[in-house]
């Protein structure tokens, strides 16, 4: 079934005023001339600074911390979860403005006579052009590729058709190679807030892994129509996966994971939890971060958003965590009906450093904090990124945001090798086991050979000669990179998109309560929550239960097999034929007289 897009001819005509010709050809708004600018390092730096703020994600964006998928939800479902995506020229046009500025810089900075300085900032530009096109391809697929400023008279280029997605990704990898050659190993006091050689290699591993797995798991679909050969390289899934592993390997060993315990969050330390609430980014693990500072002030509102939108993890996500002995949760007796307290007992330490457990103590506090139902929809409250109470106001948080961290690079390497069928015990020792060691979790040590039935149920499309290893790496990635902006895109590249939609899960499940009643979830001897059926609220309620902890079952909250469930009434079902890509904006198709074809399964009402 095709997605139908309602198009109004008059609106299209109006939007054409900001068509691709406009955003590819207009002079930069600063009206700078290469004859009067680009002479010194300060001027090159000033011009390229804008790339950081306009291209990198931020904690409040849908591409970062607030991204919801199958692992966590908020009070609002995203357009991809509800099936309400429509063409939008706003995002497309704004993005191409940035591309124009990057290409303008690369073409016009030769007035700077210091070649070393010029090349360093060219490296910055190549990095961000690569980042731009990576984000465009993963959202729209085939894209027209421009590596030069297009003049208003160059109608052939302005109306060029879309280039094959793998060709564009090949060009992205070439840009990242150029960036790695030109960027410094470090910037000194500005690390890790500026792009470096390792940032380029790390991003290359991310891009190549995305394309390699997308091609593998969407082979034979409308999304992958051909395998181009460029400069003697046939751009297969295997080629991209090899590029991912190679790029990651060049970074491995040059960084380390944060293991500090300066905040004393837990008796024996909680380095994973602490890393994400550091006021100043750790330079060893953060390969690239965004700096926030209360004194400037440049701050974000991640903690405010998590509280007010009640961001909550799902049972599906919690089930990814292994027991502390390294075994699957399915090996524990009565595992499907574990109560809140038992769910957190004897698990991978990252569970209680990511979600609020029964013994949770907030940062800068000493007393156990009872689970607040004003902050959760499932009973699994997210505490990752949650600092002390001074960060709870809108835009009051100054914790730095990780864009690329070392743990991701380790996971990229392990996944690429597993997908290629060549993951070894040595690979595991320098990747998965390093990540687990940070929190004292039992090591994997050997290449898994027995497939975990629960992981296979969660990822039914996974395939390969090392299937068991692929699934275990996915488990590790899900746990380690939770709520950092990866999950939606991981499900898309793995062809597992349907799990983002409520219909596939019959709503998003949370803690197990069995039936309605009053509960002492954390086992401290005091009742802390009441669940009651709609229209049957008890006349007498334990005095320890706050009004905000009295949850009505029968509206948005329901019970499914004894589990608290949210959004169960939402019925949108994922459509494999169109939902893996966003539609091409209709105004851009009109402006190019149909040269930009529409993505599979979308009908925008145009007759091109």
Task: Offer a few descriptive terms.
3-stranded antiparallel beta sheet; 8% strand; single chain; 608 residues; 3-stranded mixed beta sheet; mainly alpha; globular; 14 strands
Strand order of the largest sheet: 8-13-12
Instruction: Outline the biggest β-sheet.
Output: 3 strands, antiparallel
Count of beta strands: 14
Output the structural class.
mainly alpha
Shape: globular
Q: What is the alpha-carbon Rg in Å?
A: 25 Å
How many distinct helices? 22
Oligomer: single chain
Sheet-strand content, in percent, reads 5-15%
Q: What ranges have pLDDT less than 50 throughout 5 or more consecutive residues?
A: 4-19
Task: Tell me, rounded to a whole number, the average pLDDT.
Answer: 92
End-to-end separation: 20 Å
């Amino acid at each position: 079934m095709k997605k139908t897009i309602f198009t109004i001819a008059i609106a299209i005509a109006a939007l054409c005023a900001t068509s691709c010709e406009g955003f590819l050809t207009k002079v930069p708004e600063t009206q700078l001339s290469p004859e009067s600018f680009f002479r010194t390092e300060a001027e090159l730096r000033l011009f390229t600074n804008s790339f950081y703020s306009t291209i990198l994600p931020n904690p409040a964006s849908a591409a970062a911390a607030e991204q919801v998928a199958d692992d966590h939800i908020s009070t609002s479902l995203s357009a991809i979860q509800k099936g309400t995506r429509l063409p939008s020229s706003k995002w497309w046009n704004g993005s191409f403005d940035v591309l124009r500025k990057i290409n303008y810089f690369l073409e016009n900075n030769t007035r700077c006579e210091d070649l070393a300085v010029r090349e360093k900032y060219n490296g910055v530009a190549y990095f961000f052009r690569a980042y731009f096109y990576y984000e465009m391809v993963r959202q729209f697929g085939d894209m027209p590729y421009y590596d030069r400023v297009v003049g208003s008279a160059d109608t052939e280029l302005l109306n060029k058709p879309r280039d094959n997605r793998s060709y564009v990704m090949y060009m992205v990898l070439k840009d990242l190679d150029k960036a790695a050659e030109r960027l410094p190993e470090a910037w000194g006091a500005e690390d890790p807030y500026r792009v470096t050689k390792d940032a380029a290699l790390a991003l290359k591993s991310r891009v190549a892994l995305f394309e390699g797995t997308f091609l593998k798991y969407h082979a034979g679909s409308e999304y992958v129509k051909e395998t181009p050969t460029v400069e003697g390289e046939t751009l297969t899934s295997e080629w991209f996966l090899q590029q991912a592993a190679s790029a990651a390997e060049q970074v491995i060993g040059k960084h380390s994971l944060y293991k500090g315990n300066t905040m004393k969050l837990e008796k024996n330390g909680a380095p994973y939890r602490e890393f994400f609430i550091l006021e100043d980014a750790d330079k060893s693990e953060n390969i690239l971060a965004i700096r926030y500072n209360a004194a400037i002030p440049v701050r974000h509102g991640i903690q405010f958003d998590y509280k007010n939108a009640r961001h909550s993890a799902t049972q599906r996500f919690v089930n990814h965590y292994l027991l502390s002995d390294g075994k699957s949760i399915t090996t524990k007796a009565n595992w499907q009906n574990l109560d809140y307290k038992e769910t957190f007992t004897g698990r991978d330490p990252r569970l209680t450093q990511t979600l609020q457990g029964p013994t949770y103590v907030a940062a800068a506090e000493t007393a156990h904090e009872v689970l607040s139902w004003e902050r959760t929809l499932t009973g699994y409250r997210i505490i990752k990124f949650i600092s002390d109470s001074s960060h709870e106001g809108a835009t009051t948080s100054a914790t730095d945001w990780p864009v690329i961290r070392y743990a991701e690079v380790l996971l990229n390497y392990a996944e690429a090798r597993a997908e290629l069928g060549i993951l070894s015990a040595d690979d595991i020792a320098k990747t998965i086991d390093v990540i687990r060691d940070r929190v004292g979790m039992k090591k994997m040590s050997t290449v898994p050979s027995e497939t975990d039935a629960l992981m296979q149920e969660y990822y039914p499309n996974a395939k390969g000669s090392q299937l068991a290893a692929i699934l275990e790496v996915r488990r590790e990635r899900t746990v380690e990179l939770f709520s950092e902006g990866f999950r939606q895109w991981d499900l898309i590249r793995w062809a597992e998109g349907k799990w983002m939609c409520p219909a596939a899960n019959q709503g998003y499940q949370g803690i197990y309560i069995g039936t309605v009643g009053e509960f002492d979830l954390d086992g401290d001897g005091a009742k802390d929550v009441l669940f009651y059926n709609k229209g049957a609220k008890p006349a007498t309620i334990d005095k320890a239960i706050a009004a905000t902890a009295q949850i009505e079952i029968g509206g948005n909250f329901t019970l499914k097999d004894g589990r608290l469930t949210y959004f169960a009434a939402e019925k949108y079902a994922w459509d494999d034929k169109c939902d893996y890509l966003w539609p091409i904006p209709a105004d851009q198709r009109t402006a190019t007289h149909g040269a930009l074809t529409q993505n599979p399964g979308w009908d925008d009402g145009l007759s091109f």
